[in-house]
Amino acid sequence: MSFDPAIITDNLPQIVDGLRLTILLWLAGTITGMALGFMLALLQTSRLGPVRFLVRIYQSIFRGTPFLVQIFLLYYGGPMIGLLLNAETAGVLGLALYSAAYFTEIFRAGFGAVSVGQAEAGRICGLSEFQILCHIQLPQMMVTITPALVGMFIVMSKETAILSVMTVPEITAVLSGIGSATFTYVETLLTLVLCYWVLVGATTWIGSRVERHMQRHLLPENGKTA
């Protein structure tokens, strides 16, 4: 049995549409999850014990259960409590809720990596908590956690494949459908592997560029304090 590239070229518009939808769902869900995770990490610094406890419960649930189960409960179980979502919306929400649990831990570790004494020095200088966050904590912690953030983006790019179980026409569903209809599983699966490999490679490259840029941005400041 030989490889037939015509299977791919003949269905290229459909494949491109599936890849485009995959990227849109991935970015929308992961960026939303990162924003939610940042807010939850801030709540973990609260002096209110019940607030910190609720955040830990959230993390425990979403990190301790498979993403596939969460998606099934959200999409197929949601209508039982009045939550009616189309497949794409449920996919974005599912990706956001799942990734937020991990982003929370990444941001929490980032806050912990910044010396408490620097925040105290900022308060002595009259800075508000918001100014301390923006000018002292965030610039330093982002350099530390950028590799973890990029790693999480890569993980979530591959988790989009699970959305195919909800009939979302992303790249996995499209190529699986083509393979089933034409009985050309080798061609379609190799194309699927290539699509995710390129996506992960591009994310890694962008992440390394961002990390180097942030490190260069802080070098002059570090040099002054040396």
Helices and strands in order, then pairings?
Layout: H1 6-10, H2 12-43, H3 49-63, H4 67-76, H5 87-113, H6 116-124, H7 129-159, H8 171-182, H9 185-225
Features:
226 residues; mainly alpha; MetI-like fold; 9 helices; 0% strand; flat
Q: Give me the CATH architecture, please.
A: Orthogonal Bundle
Overall mean confidence score, pLDDT = 88
Please identify which CATH superfamily we are dealing with.
Answer: MetI-like
Low-confidence stretches: 222-226
Question: Strand content of the residues, in percent?
Answer: under 5%
State the domain count.
1
The gross shape turns out to be flat
The CATH topology corresponds to MetI-like fold
Your description of this structure?
- It contains nine helices and no strands.
- It has 226 residues and is mainly alpha-helical.
- It has a single domain (21-225), classed as MetI-like fold.
